[in-house]
Amino acid sequence: MNQIARIIxxxxxxxxxxxxxDNQTFLMMSIGGYGVISVVSHLVGSQIKHMMGxxxxxxxEGAASEHRRLLPIFLGMFTExxxxxxxxxxxxxxxxxxxxxxxxxxxxxxxxxxxNKFLEEYDIDLPISA
Length: 130
Description:
mainly alpha; about 130 residues
């Protein structure tokens, strides 16, 4: 975060710093980051948007609370190499995005159990009707 803060301080207002890690979005935006390139938004996008909106409105405690609530799924979707967990989850909720391509393989049984738990615990934003 120190390096990111230095970049934000020295780069100027037209240079946008984006988070590439869902679990660091709140922290990065708190120090002046612009947004997120998200993996977990494929599952809880409106909830991430809500967290970011709270932060932009100045409700730091509300955003922090939402971040803490989402942190288990942020971390849990990376227990195996990306995109293995999110592909499994999106397939599981009814959108056929196919299996991971070699050299990646489907998630382990342990990971599937954990991902299934997240799908039950969180208000998943998909599938989106056309």
